[in-house]
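Pipeline run #58 for the internal structure catalog. This entry was flagged by the ingest filter as a single-chain record with no existing model, so it goes straight to prediction. Upstream metadata was stripped on purpose; only the residue string is passed forward. Reviewer on rotation: M.T. Logging verbosity set to normal.
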Amino acid sequence: MERKVKVAAVSYLNTKPLLYGFRNHPVMEMMELSMDYPAKIAQQLIDGEVDVALVPVAIIPKLKEYHIIADYCIGAEGPVASVCLYSDVPLNEIKRIYLDYQSRTSVALLKVLVHEYWKLDVEFVPTTGDYQQNIKGTDAGLVIGDRALAQRKVSPYIYDLAENWTRFTSLPFVFAAWISNKPLPAKFIKEFNHATGIGIQNIPAVVAENPYDLYDLTTYYIHNISYPLTPAKRQGMQKFLGYLLKED
């Protein structure tokens, strides 16, 4: 290979198991790794600034070509805990929803659930920074990632998006996958896939490295997040992408 493969990933707690195996792995000699939040990485992949990224699956329609290069993803087969609609009031009383700027997939999933499943008439409010303090009265908020785990201690009503998707479709959900915007060498893909799976087999070690008081990470990594990219998850992903085309 003439140059190193540029890889981008998210610096959330939910990605720690996927990144754990990269340290001291031979694949690191073939790649450069950078970290940012999901929507930023997604744009880098779309713009060709990186070759591979752990990206929200909602960006797939925006890529000229895409290849899923690993057998692991950020997925859920039930409650995911860290992608939720938070509210002071029940669903049918919500008037406005603040949207988390950090993830396109979560926003797109929320809109599918609002329109197709819950059948709500609400106003969506884009955000650019912290907005959790606005979640009060009939104003709800979609919060993702580590901040979502913290918000669980604050809001009385919590609507887990992955859990509701599963109720709606009887399929698991894929939030993010390792996607490349071009074909990559088979040797790199093999080593990369091996590296990204190591942490999944070593959850206690990952938990030990990431002390976290607000939520039990063993529960999070084993019961909330489901990392293997199974045929059922691929089916759920295709169904979701079908809804995205419909929404457009």
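catalog note: Residues 76 and 225 are 5 Å apart (CA to CA).
catalog note: The chain has a mean pLDDT of 94.
status: ready for reviewer M.T.
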